[in-house]
Automatic annotation (TrEMBL):
The gene is htpX. Its EC number is 3.4.24.-. InterPro entries: HtpX_protease, Pept_M48_protease_HtpX, Peptidase_M48. Binds 1 zinc ion per subunit. It comes from the Bacteria. This is Protease HtpX homolog. The chain crosses the membrane at residues 16-36, 42-60, 154-174, 194-213. It is a multi-pass membrane protein. Gene3D superfamilies: Metalloproteases ('zincins'), catalytic domain. GO terms for molecular function: metalloendopeptidase activity; zinc ion binding. Residues 79-298 form the Peptidase M48 domain. Zn(2+) binds at residues 144, 148, 222. Its cofactor is Zn(2+). It is found in: Cell membrane.
Length: 300
């Protein structure tokens, strides 16, 4: 298990740098292509500025963005001693520094971890999880999230929140520039038509590219965090029972956002989402029934 965990941690670091590199190449490439056919270098310079700036923001501030998008509010130790003590005990067992502790004002049972490394991390849990889960169930959920921190899942997952969203936004901006601002009396030129065609392709496929970036965060990380969390608590049934309650809770989160959905222990959209095969193909979470079955079969 240890060798697998170390391999997984190294793989997540590589994935993060790959994600950042792909983002740089994609955004600068879009700026270069649109700039050529609009006969201006300004678009390329803008693309380079956006790519570099957003990579910096994604690395240093993506956790704050993810927390804000989810409506998570930081709590002090004296404000929720029960939650703090549980996280502190798990951190001592796991050998992790204490993360920032946040609560999401939502009756749904859910939680997520974020940050760029164990020393700059946070765990957010819904009020529903605190109120509806038994001690060992909440402990299992928190152990799962702390395992994401220990396994170094949080950086690549959180960076994907910012970069995937920016790709879609920048593609839309480039399309609007090429369609409305770049042609005028050039519409009869071949270059103008080609630029428009590129813009159309970009705007159509950008959302797909953003989804694929989020899906590059392997679903296997959830299985691994389940197993790591169960080993941390030495009680797999705690997390399994929590997941069973989550499975029966079909109420979607009020602040659910497609950009942060992959961070949560369970899909925050719940009943909002269709059951067709295409939705499952692009799902950011493995089937919850499979996770429960694996946990129930674990022996620690």
């Amino acid at each position: 298990m240890s060798a697998n965990l170390y391999t997984h941690q190294s793989e997540n670091v590589r994935k993060t740098w790959l994600l950042i590199t792909v983002f740089l190449v994609l955004i600068i490439g879009l700026g270069w292509a649109i700039g050529i056919f609009m006969e201006t270098r300004a678009i390329l310079y803008i693309a380079i500025f956006i790519a570099i700036t957003m990579n910096i923001v994604a690395y240093w501030k993506s956790d704050k963005i993810a927390l804000a998008m989810s409506g998570a509010k930081e709590v002090k130790r004296e404000e929720n001693l029960y939650l703090y003590r549980m996280i502190e005990n798990l951190c001592i067992t796991a050998g992790l520094p204490l993360p920032g502790v946040y609560i999401i004002d939502s009756p749904q049972i859910n939680a997520f971890a974020t940050g760029r490394d164990p020393n700059h991390s946070a765990v957010a849990v819904t009020k529903g999880a605190i109120e509806k889960l038994e001690n060992e169930e909440l402990e299992g959920v928190l152990a799962h999230e702390l395992s994401h921190i220990g396994n170094k899942d949080i950086l690549v997952s959180t960076v994907a929140v910012v970069l995937a969203g920016v790709i879609a936004i920048v593609a839309d901006i480039f399309f609007r520039i090429s369609f409305f601002g770049g042609f005028g009396d050039r519409d009869d030129r071949q270059g103008g038509g080609l630029a428009l065609a590129i813009g159309l392709v970009v705007i159509i496929f950008a959302p797909l590219a953003a989804s694929l970036i989020r899906l590059s965060i392997s679903r296997k990380r959830e299985y691994l965090a389940d197993a790591s969390g169960a080993l941390l608590t030495r009680f797999p049934d705690g997390l399994a029972n929590a997941l069973q309650k989550i499975a029966h809770d079909q109420q979607p989160m009020r602040r659910a956002h497609s950009g942060t959905a992959h961070l949560f222990i369970s899909n925050p959209f719940k009943g909002k989402q269709s059951k067709n095969w295409l939705v499952h193909l692009f799902s950011t979470h493995p089937p919850i029934e499979d996770r429960i079955r694996i946990l129930k079969g674990m022996k620690v």
